[in-house]
Amino acid sequence: MADLQDAQAALTEQATHDALTGLPNRAVLVDRIDQALSHSKRSGQCVAVLFVDLDQFKHLNDTQGHAAGDTALRRVADKLDAALRPMDTVARIGGDEFVVLAPDVGSQLHAVDLSTRLITELRRRPDRVEDGERLAASVGISVSVGGRGTAETLLAEADTAMYQAKSLGGGRAAVFDAALGQQVRQRSTAQSALQSALDDHRIIAHYQPVVDLYTGGVAGFEALARIAAHDGSITPPSAFTPVAEDSGLVVPLGAQVLAMACQEARRWLPTGVPECRLTVAVNLSSRQFEIGDLATVVSERLEQTGLDPSCLHLELTATAIIDLHPDFLQQLGRIQDLGVEIGLDDFGTGYASLTHLRRLPLTFVKIDQSFVQGLGTDHEDEPIVRAVVDLAANLGLRSIAEGVETKDQLDRLRQLGCDQAQGYLFAPPLPPNDVPTAIEHFAW
Which pTM was predicted? Predict the structure, then answer.
């Protein structure tokens, strides 16, 4: 009889608690939130749900192994549990995600104070692993007054607020409010519109000329995604690129743009311009590396279209190089082995550094337009542009200036020895049918 009771107790524990940390699981958490909301309707007190997500936890797992990650998760669970009141609940609902339920809080301000205390506790006594790396957390807060909402509603709101905290740099808290809710609805609408455009094959690419500053002719083009609406209007990338990144739709989006760019570039060759003098550049996102075989995707597109690999350039964005994972570098190496050139976009901003120039298989760097636009007017920008141009030359890389809009900027770039440039001074992104004319008649 005792053995049966022990077995039943063990099964109950497995069904209601996380095996790694011993914390309550999502099912228990949802039940307790619902109970707290029912009590709140009678008491008038607030119920706070705090969504806690560790920053850079994937990097820890990738670099030091899952054993180190598991140890960190157990320690974080202990710290969160120790920092709470007896009436509060902390649960692990998956991965590096924890949720704190704080019933009977006086106001939203008290919930914010609690989140600050949790973040401070994790920061004050951070997890240290072998190389001394520290873990911090981002916290999203949802507060119910008078029993508003359901457990799933509060969890979804807190999750949304957590992503807002991460977008602000991490290691902080954000509160879900009406304005954030409106942003979520807008983002959801934009995501649906993008998904519809992908399904209906309404993604198109326009091509902005890249000019050789020594010859004044077109060296190639950068492919820039657009959405063609049913009414004939064109949606610019600024309206859908952020939601594409956040939702993961950037993977099919990138695949479609890559296929179109290779097909169009192959079509340019009969214009009489020597083969492979013209190139087409396509941006890559970090999400595209997560599919695990980007090199095969690139190889298949080249084979399907017949485009010479040396005509294709792939540009890594700042977000794509945050984590130089070995698999990431291996995929880049395989792409380079195909004969495709790889460049670093927006150099001088974000996460780009000299380390990336040393470790990545690059052949060119693009100078961010924020520095180019200051040439001749901002005394701090010109030394930066000069330094990037000189650095690229010393490393055997081409320098490409983005966002050139005035003749003065162009003249200064030539004086500084910049190799190539693009911007509205030369031409805006062009529809595919306008590209052959630009190739034949363009000269600067």
Answer: 0.72
